[in-house]
Amino acid sequence: CSSLVTCHSSLIMLEHATLLLHEWKADGAAWARSITDGAGQPLGCVRLESDPRTFWFSWLRRVKLDIFETDDASHLMTMTRSWSMLGIWEVEDAEARAVGTIYACSIVSSEGHRLALVERANPAIRLLNELDQVLATVSNKGPVEITFAPGEANPFLRMLLLGYAIAQTPLPSR
Fold first, then answer.
1. Prior bond to 123 cis, omega within 30?
2. Is the pTM of this model over 0.85?
């Protein structure tokens, strides 16, 4: 990951029921945020590729986030936000294959199928499937916490749900 974040675990990140996304930390021009399980055990990190310094039209710039897991820092997925005021994120797996798109109110597969709708329920966000069943909840109190619904084991859907949780917090700024 980086000198900031140590990825110690040999467990696979997406198999955990709860993930915590911690604050961004700076190391010169690089930025990273650790990902742990619900007990605080390190599982991986998110790395910011572009310079996050704010400027007049910062919403116009392309942003790329790489998500890594385990002690060997294996690449799990990439999230890319093109220049836009809408905050739309494209998600690719480690082999750069399209997984889906994250919108403000929904998550769509790379084939164009709506996989989840966003329900903003105070204090958490619920991500629901087409049958209104909860796929995951996201809470922004303290570290961002995402809890996957029991039985939801599709790793590509979990990638998109994790991506939604990552996209819900602001990028770092100086």
1. yes
2. yes
Angle at 54 between CA 52 and CA 60, to 5 degrees: 85
- What end-to-end distance do the CA atoms of the chain give, in Å? 21
pLDDT in tens, 125-147: 999 999 999 999 999 888 999 99
Helix (H) or strand (E) holding 165: helix 155-167
CB burial of residue 63 (10 Å; 0-12, 13-18, 19+):
buried
Residues 78 and 64: beta-carbon distance below 8 Å: yes
Contacts of 24 by beta carbon, 8 Å cutoff, 6+ apart: 31, 32, 33, 48, 171, 172
